[in-house]
Amino acid sequence: MDLRHKVLRTDNCLDMLRNLHPNDVNNELIGNIVITHHNRKTYKVNDIDYTMNPLKTFELLVNGEKVVTTFAEYYSNKFGLAITDNDQPLLVHRPKRKDRHRGQKGPILLIPELCNLTGLSTGQRGDHKLMRDVHRITSLDPSTRVTSLSNFTDRLFSSPEVQKKLLEWGMKLDKRMAKVTGRKLDPEELILGTRSFTAKDNADWTHDLKGSEWISTS
C-alpha cells in the first residue's frame, strides 16, 4: 500500500462553462480528468458536445428491454439527482480499449453539472501560497505516512463489508507493516550550474533550486 493524493475542486464543470471564455473552457476541460457525483468515478474529457443536452434521449436496457429516456430522467430516477440547467452541453469521454472489450461501444456522455474537475487550474498553479499548502499536505514525512497507513488499515479491519469481501477472495491482511533493514547514506553534494549545495534529508530542495542556472547537454 502507498498514499496517493488527488486534488478535487469544489466548482463543477457547469460553473466553468458559464464563467470562462470558450477558448479557456477547452484548455481547462479537454484532456483533463473529472470525477462524477453519482458513482465517484473519474473520466478523461475528450470533447464537449454542444449539440447534446440533458433533455436528449438515449436507449437504456432495463430487464432485457430497451427503454428510451432522457439524461435528466435517468439521473433523477436512478440517483435522485436533479438537473438545474437543461441547456448545458455534454462532456464526451471516449472509452479506452479495455472499456470496449467490456462492451462499451460508444462514447460516455457526462453532465457538466454533475462533474468536478480534478487537479489544479492554471491560476491555482500560479498561486505560490496554495502550492506551498498542497506540498505540505502531500509531501508527508515517514512517521506521518506510517500513521496514515495504520489508520487506513484499522478502517479496513473495522469494516464488515471489507472483511466479507476479503473472505470471499480468500485473502487476509496483516495489521503490522513489513519491517526491513536499511541504512542511511551520507548526504550528497548537488551541483546546479555554478552552484552546489548539500542534499537535505527530506529531499526538499525547492529553496535551493530558485534562481539556479541549468546546464543541458545533448
Topology:
Layout: E1 8-12, H1 13-19, H2 22-29, E2 33-36, E3 42-44, E4 47-49, E5 57-62, E6 65-70, H3 71-79, E7 90-93, H4 97-101, E8 108-110, E9 115-118, H5 122-125, H6 128-138, H7 142-158, H8 160-169, E10 189-192, E11 195-198, H9 206-209
Antiparallel strand pairs: 1-9, 2-3, 2-9, 4-7, 5-6, 7-8, 10-11
Give the gist of this structure.
By secondary structure, the chain is α+β, with helices and mostly antiparallel strands. It has nine helices and eleven strands.
Please characterize this protein's 3D structure:
A hairpin with a 2-residue loop joins strand 10 and strand 11. 34% of the residues lie in helices and 21% in strands. The chain is flat. The protein has two domains: 113 residues, paz domain, CATH 2.170.260.10; 46 residues, no CATH class. It is built from nine helices and eleven strands. The protein is α+β, with helices and mostly antiparallel strands and 218 residues long. It has a four-stranded antiparallel sheet. A three-stranded antiparallel sheet has the order 4-7-8, with no helix packed on it. A two-stranded antiparallel sheet has the order 5-6.
